[in-house]
Amino acid sequence: MTSVTGRPAPARHAGAGTEGWPAPGARGASQAPAPSRSAQPSGPGTSHRPSPGKFSANTVLAVIGLGALAVVILWWHTTPDVSGLGGWLTGAGEILGLLAGYGVVVLVALMARLPPLERGVGTDRLARWHAMGGRYIVSVIVAHGLLILWGYAVEAHTSVVSETGVLLTEYPDVLMATVAGFLLLGVGIVSMRAARRRMGYETWYYLHLYTYLAIALAFSHQFAVGASFVNSLAARFWWSAMYLIVAALVLWYRLVVPVLAFYRHGFKVIGVKLEGPGVTSVYIGGAHLEELAAEPGQFFRWRFLTRSLWWSSHPYSLSAAPGKGVLRITVKDLGDHSEALASLRPGTRVMAEGPFGAFTSRGSERGVLLLAGGVGITPLRAMFSTLPGPVTLIYRASSERDLVFREELDSIASARGATVHYLIGSRAQLGGDPLSPRVLRSLVPGLQRHDVYVCGPAGMTSAAVEALQAAGVPKRHIHFESFEF
Amino acid sequence: MRRVILAVTATIAGLVALLSFKSHVPAIAAATSGTGVSSGGTSGSGSGSGSGASGSGSGGSSSGGQGFATGKQTGLTANEHTVTGNVANTIYGPVQIQLVVKDNKIVKVSVLQQPSNTIHDIQIGQFAFPRLIAETLAAQNAKIDSVSGATYTSGGYIQSLQTAVDKGI
Amino acid sequence: MAGGLAMAGGRLRHAEHVMGTVVSFDVPDWAGDPDGALAQAVRWLHWVDATFSPYRDDSDVTRFGRGSLGLSDCAPELAEILASCAAVSVRSGGYFTTAPGGRFDPSGYVKGWAIERAAAILTAAGSGSHCVNGGGDVQCVGEREPGRPWRIGIAHPLRSGSLALVVTGRDFAVATSGSAERGPHIINPHTGTPATDLASITVVGATLAETDAYATAAYAMGSAARDWLEALEGYEAFAVTPTGSAWQTTNFPAHVAR
User: Which segments of chain B does DSSP mark as H helices, in order?
Assistant: First the structure.
């Protein structure tokens, strides 16, 4: 365990510790400890661009809940009395069908890259909600199909087997909806963690796109055979409006906005730097970057337009506060994509979507603790240089080799009078869990009053969050971002 | 896992609650269950009303009205009045019935409102949601040998169709 | 013992007031001794009335129900009837009961049984074709004429004086249960409230005792009777609902006259 406090570190690489590119003869002291221009204000009352609207998590959940309630009310108003086994089964199937038709729209909206959601709820949380909601909705769809089938069979006094045939062949659009249901079930199955581990991210991603097809296939059967829609023009109108609005949002924010940004900002690779074994920084330049209002801690989704990379888009955090016309990302070699970045040529055009992420901070006089594990150092490195107020950084890595930005971090620390603690090595080597509450409290005096930002692999993050709570940090002061892609 | 259980139970509970609230027996207002017969009063011959059906509750029996109406009703006579039911939400959709009642007997039934037809209504309609019986058969034209109907009492016999049959009409 | 004798070209018809209703006999063509057989059948019906009527204080049924007469002291037919009633009750899931409202009353079975037996008396006396109608429940033996089945009209429960359907058959029984004549007098034994799902239900089977009992059970069952009757072997049914609509079991149309 080594700590570094206030010791100037010689700059070994050109550009180390810079907030821009390239700064010749960089010395820690000469670099800006102050927040960079496009980041947060240095105090209240500083004028800068107003922050874009954010919807908090609770607001979004409340809206989703109200929508579900409205759907239930729709069923209520359009259903005559229910009686008998057939009536109950069909009624249950109808309610679930309506909820599913609404639910898929919500799921798509969560992933539509809507800025108020991305900033307010946070990309990682949106993804988790989408995953949980997705599992639930797929189950609801399966239940809907089975209940309707059974209920119709009972009402028509036929067997389930023959009713299956009737539904598929005589009821309009039901065959398409059934195909859609199986598609969604399939997507659900391949999205299970066990399956995803075996396939590349890109494969999973492209399979997941079939959900759009499924939604399109299933849409018409809602109106063709849905009891709640058959007689109500108003219901059909509002339902269609809901689908159209979300479709428009998806098209706009996922297709149009990146293209517009591409032309507005003209992102290009400026250069590539090897930070260490298997760790590469990519510098991307562009025009009018301040319009993006990117904050340290946020990430972009990057699509490098080379022959092998153009078809996939990956999220990487900014590893430095946005500089004048430059954005830096730092990527650890974890797969094909990250390996390929090391060989990017300057001038390569890039499509960047973003910024995304709610993992940002304005700093605090009570003190901020940045807790990084492994590759999680990336966004925290950006925050480390820019947050006002007292800041401490704890960087957990399993070996010296895995440390990234060591010199930069040391020089930032010395420049701003902040402390960096490096916790390197396995637990055995360190004689215990280095992120235990006791250790944390001893490393960070006044820990309970700090705002804490944790970033790292999922396991480390959750363990750290627990330890922090055990050490007395209130839950609302703990922020973390953990991605599982 | 706990979240899964919570989600499943909440969903099922919600479904059950919603369906239960929708489950009361639909009532067709103004029309009684097709009898139009007031109970009370007369018994038949000395042995009292005969065969009880299982659970026959009332001791009294009634033969119902005094008129013996055959064939079609054309327009209303002095004893007749119409009763229009409220729109009833049956399991197949809204139904509204209009009755012509004469002397406490329903003599004509019209359907003012039927559920609109999704293909599902049509499919089950072939079994369950019944069309009204369009033909009414006049006993005289049907050349029947006997009549089966709800058990009439001796008094009721006189008004029943069987009387006509027995007399060879 | 009222009732007239009408003969038209060898056709014997007789209406007998007994058991609180009127039993109509129709013997289209007989060479034998119609009067003798008919008288015997009529005596039989009156004996049934005296022995099984729950409305007579001194009938076996009333005294047995009160407990003042043991089963072995009653007419042997009562034991037989109780056994049959138990079987019907089981088969109908309890919707047929000999204890409606707590009082012992097997009339739901007895009436049809009495008519069935009356028809059997005529058969035993040599008649090959006759029709006995006890207050709306009919047992037909043979055909109306060689090559021509019996035609039984089903009274429309809502349009008095009209028929809903005509059924035809040979050697069959037609029993109808409903509320058109006496109001909602049939109680659903499981709920204790009058059965109101149906205006009437007609069951067609081979013998009247069971057919009548099933019709009564089915009426008490209400809408649920449809599936039950569908599954019941040897019986077909036709029902009319209070709104004037109707349903039939799958094989019922075979009985409907064209």
Answer: 2-21, 119-125, 139-142, 154-159, 161-166
**Burial readout A449-484 (b: 16 or more C-beta within 10 A, e: otherwise):** ebbbbbbbeeebbebbbebbeebebeeebbbbbbbe
Residues of C in contact with A84 (CB under 8 A): 223
**C19, C177, C219: residue with CB nearest B50:** C19
Q: Is A175 on the interface with B (CB under 8 A)?
A: no
Residues 6+ apart with CB under 8 A from A387: A35, A40, A296, A361, A362, A363, A368
Query: What ipTM did this prediction achieve?
Result: 0.82
Cβ neighbours for C256, distance < 8 A, ≥ 6 positions apart: C165, C166, C167, C168
In the predicted model, residues of chain A with pLDDT beneath 70 are 1-52, 80, 231, 335-336, 483-485
For the ranges A29-43, B69-83, C200-214, the lowest mean pLDDT is seen at: A29-43
Model-wide pTM > 0.80: no
Chain B positions touching A166 (Cβ under 8 A) are 123
How is the beta sheet containing A478-481 ordered, strand by strand?
A2-5, A419-424, A391-397, A368-373, A451-455, A478-481
pLDDT on residue B116: 52
Kindly report the nearest CA distance between residue C72 and chain B, in angstroms. 24
A84 inside 8 A of chain C by CB = yes
> Min CA distance, A77 vs chain C (Å)?
24
pLDDT of C60 reads 92
Q: Do C6 and B168 touch (CB under 8 A)?
A: yes
Structure confidence by residue, pLDDT tens digits, A181-202: 999 999 988 888 777 777 777 7
What pLDDT was estimated at residue B60?
30
Q: What is the spatial order of strands in the sheet that A268-276 belongs to?
A: A268-276, A279-285, A326-332
Name the pLDDT band for C120 (thresholds 50, 70, 90): very high
